[in-house]
Amino acid sequence: MVGVPLTTLPGTPGADAPVHFSLDTTDVDEARAFCRRMFYGPLRVDPVGDRSGFAFHGDVVALGSITVGEISYGSDIRVAIADLETSYHVLAPLTGVLRSRHRGTTVLADQTRAAVYRPVGDIDLDWPGSCRLLSVKVERAALERELDAALDQQIVSPLLLGDSFNLTEAPGRTWMALVQLFFGELLRGRGLATQPRMAGRWRDMVVSGLALTVEHPYGEEPHGMRGPNRPRTVKRTLDAMHAEPWRPFTATDLAGIAGVGVRVLQESFRQHVGMSPLTYLRRLRLDGVHAELSRSDPWQVNVSEVAYRWGFTHLGRFAGAYRARYGVPPSQTLRERR
What we know:
By secondary structure, the chain is an alpha+beta fold. Helix content is about 40%, strand content about 20%. It folds into two domains: about 1-215, Jelly Rolls; about 230-335, Homeodomain-like (Arc Repressor Mutant, subunit A, Orthogonal Bundle). The protein has eleven helices and 13 strands. The strands form two sheets. The protein has an eight-stranded antiparallel β-sheet, with helices on both faces. It has a five-stranded antiparallel β-sheet with strand order 3-6-11-8-9. Helix 2 crosses helix 4 (about 195-215), helix 3 runs antiparallel to helix 4 (about 195-215) and helix 5 crosses helix 6. InterPro entries: AraC-bd_2 (IPR035418), AraC_XylS_family_regulators (IPR050204), Homeodomain-like_sf (IPR009057), HTH_AraC (IPR018060), HTH_AraC-typ_CS (IPR018062).
């Protein structure tokens, strides 16, 4: 696997620095490990039938809250993914047809229709060797904040999104063209898209464009999709954690930001986010460490300094939590950059 920073990497968490990773392999285990590292840990890739034609190709660009990849396997495979938890996801075939099952709904995705995934519910994919697609991962909080801001109203978390959208009509056609242009420019390198400020704006356009493209019930009749609104207290707390994830927040600190008691905030988070505030903060920090280790030069940084920078002060507990989330120790993630 090759990981190529497209710009000079910044020294602080959250700064924009597009990074390109690529892999071509005929080894199923190597392809599986690449996809787990780029997208999700709880992911299975199993060839169907003859493996002789298996030839994985992956080009992936990671930029802050989004990850875009062009992926193909060369032979028929079956993919199983557990709950995405922290992300929304779109699969848009460039060739072939993908059969997708998610939350009781089957979608046939092709060049005319993209499949959309919420952060809850297992995903099963029948992926033929003829299918090459764009895989777009968007951080859960980023899309939810964008839709919340665009509509200026409280929304359900996770978002009540449709299972697919049309790619041949606006706005789906426009969003797909934007993603392809963004992805292509970053792969070619040396253009304006590789500059952090421009890349950050382009990333924001991808997120806001998706918020305006996917089907949702907000701003109109919910059609039976009603759910509890996410309180402003939860939103304020999420915004504070994403703005300064390395800050040593306590439960009392977060409750003070929200303007409610600790127990009230904890119950609100369990109801509307699915976990406690401090659990969410730990996952946010782990994702930040993982992203930084994945794109850093192992000769210039070490695991301890990255962990401290993201707010982890007990390295033993950090290492255990990291391994539980990603399936490998943090040092292995950094070594794979060599």
